[in-house]
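pipeline: protein-struct stage 2 | run 1193 | Toll-like receptor 2
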Amino acid sequence: MFNQTKHKSRTTHTWQVWAIYMVLAANLSEEQVLKQACPSCDATQLCNCSSMGLDFIPPGLTGKITVLNLAHNRIKHIRSQDLQQAVNLRALLLQFNEISLIDRDSFHSLGKLELLDLSNNSLAHLSPAWFGHLFSLQHLHLQGNSYRDLGKNSPFSSLRNLSSLYLGNPQFSTIRQGNFEGIELLDKLWIDGGNLSQYEPGSLKSIKKINHMIINLRNTSVFSAVVRDLVYSVTWLEVREIKLKIENKSLVQNSTLPFRIRKLTFKDASFTDYYISRIIILLKEITSLQELDAVDCVLDGTGQWNTIELASSGQSFVETVSIINMMIQHFHLFSDLEGMESQIHKLKRLTIASSRVFMVSCNLAKHFSSLLYLDFHDNLLVNNRLNETICEHAWPSLQTLNVSQNSLKSLKQTASSVSRLTKLINLDISQNKFGEIPDVCEWPKTLKYLNLSSTQIPKLTTCIPSTLEVLDVSANNLREFGLQLPFLRELYLAKNQLKTLPGAASIPNLVAMSVRRNKLNSFSREEFESFKKMELLDASDNNFICSCDFLSFIQQQAGVAQVLVGWPDKYVCDSPLAVRGAQVGAVHLSLMECHRSLVVSLACALVFVVILVLVAVGYKYHAVWYLRMTWAWLQAKRKPKRAPPKDICYDAFVSYSENDSDWVENIMVRELEQACPPFRLCLHKRDFVPGKWIVDNIIDSIEKSHKTLFVLSEHFVQSEWCKYELDFSHFRLFDENNDAAILVLLEPIQSKAIPKRFCKLRKIMNTKTYLEWPPEEEQQEMFWENLKGALKL
């Protein structure tokens, strides 16, 4: 019984192991398939399978993946099991596929999904079942499919956290009541309804609040109905592609609800003079509307608006109007808008850009009594027309004026025109062609900000007002900056030709400065610290010379990194060549590169010390003597070892000290030269050739003598010339291996008293016999006989 139980247990365990193995093998196989289909999915939370030519969602997706990108493939069908294991998915991107079929429960496991993009596929309808379990979904993109409506009910009823919704396509034609049930708040709603023809009133009312709604519309009746629904819920409504032919019917229903809409934008729309008047009148009913924009629109008209009806319809509440890139075919025939004066009193901000404006009538300009901001950039204003536009008492409250990118050419005339704006603070006249500027200009006394960038100014003069707090003169041809601007806090000098930082004394209150893309090579600690209040300095994109002083300052100065804008990426060395292209903060030069003069000085000092040491050592060990003797020996070597017999003139050359001359000349010479037969002796006093180099005399005398007779004494050892004579005899003695040298000791002398450099001579004294001059007279006869015998050998 026990054995059967044991066998049964073992069998069960085997089957469990086998089952686990099969599951692991299946998972491993699926992971391998996934890895082959999407290599980027390997061990990452982001799985990018876009543009891989996939026909299906690859198997093997796990709970590790949080972002799955399957865009730009050929997927047609999303099956129930495809995403079942991807329970932690946060973003699923399926745009630009061929999806036409989605199983009801395909997204049921994606409870954490926040972004779903199904745009630009082939979905013919939308099913609420797809989105029923997407409780965390915030962003849903469904535009660019083929559905014609959203169904009879709301497909979004369970999406309580939805923040942005993109809908519609060229076939989208119908919106019904209840289609947006369940959505209460949206940050952005985009409906592509270019062919939207049926809109049931109240369809969008279920959404209580929409921050920004974009809708493409061509049907003006649908536009009116949409506006009626949205004035209570949307903050910013943007209408695109509409050809406005609005009906003469109120846009506001009788309701006690407060209006919410603040901004209305028309983009790529077209208007006529008649419908411009109608829309202005109808929009006055929306008392909450404060901002009106027209971008990339077309006006088929010349400004012949119904000003009488406009005036009788009451005051507009709009405070901001922006007209950008308005196409007016006959703009040169456009009217001066006489009669519109009553409609502009409350306007505070006006932008008319890129719309070929060339002037505003003086009478109309005087009625912009509340206008604070005026932007006329990228138009056709010239100085004469600007002078008419800013006539006396025009724009009385204006604080900011932008007339950049026009056709202004005289800075003096421009300054004179704007000087009539007594409250002007900010002036942008950049991207005009001023060129040379005068020394004196008249400006508003309140002016604090001036933008003169890209105006082809080669040099700044005192025309620039001293009241400025912000000055932008970027992208000119400036080579220096020396203006006295005591109140200046910000200075922009980018894209000029400056080689040094401006002087801080003339701009003591500067807080921020840009010298980006100039010809700045470096700046010193003193220049940097002279700006006492500097908080931001943009010196990026210059060609820095990474000298040792510059690197030492820029890398070690406390707080530099916090002040420099773009540090360290935008600060790159241009030289030395070895570090070109490297970041300034990462360059470290060697000691030799940083302290070249010091290193050279130390090297010279070291060489001098070495020479000094060599001289001292040479002096101590008689190096000079060795050099002299080597030179003399080389000279002697070039001569024959022994002179021919016919050139032998003397029996002996006598080498002696001048202090021993009395004994040599009065005793020895007399004794030897008067002997029978007499000996011929060579004495330097008597026989040296006058004018001949003394060394040559010594060598010649030794070579022309049979013997060399050295009279040794303490004086001889100390004599320099005796040393030479001894040396040359030394060479001859050992070169020829003979007994040419005769040593006579005039007085007792120790062999160690002879200099050590005459080692061979000392050896001779130790190994050969030498003659000693006896002080006793009875022994002197024997001395002379021995000496004569030595001379005869």
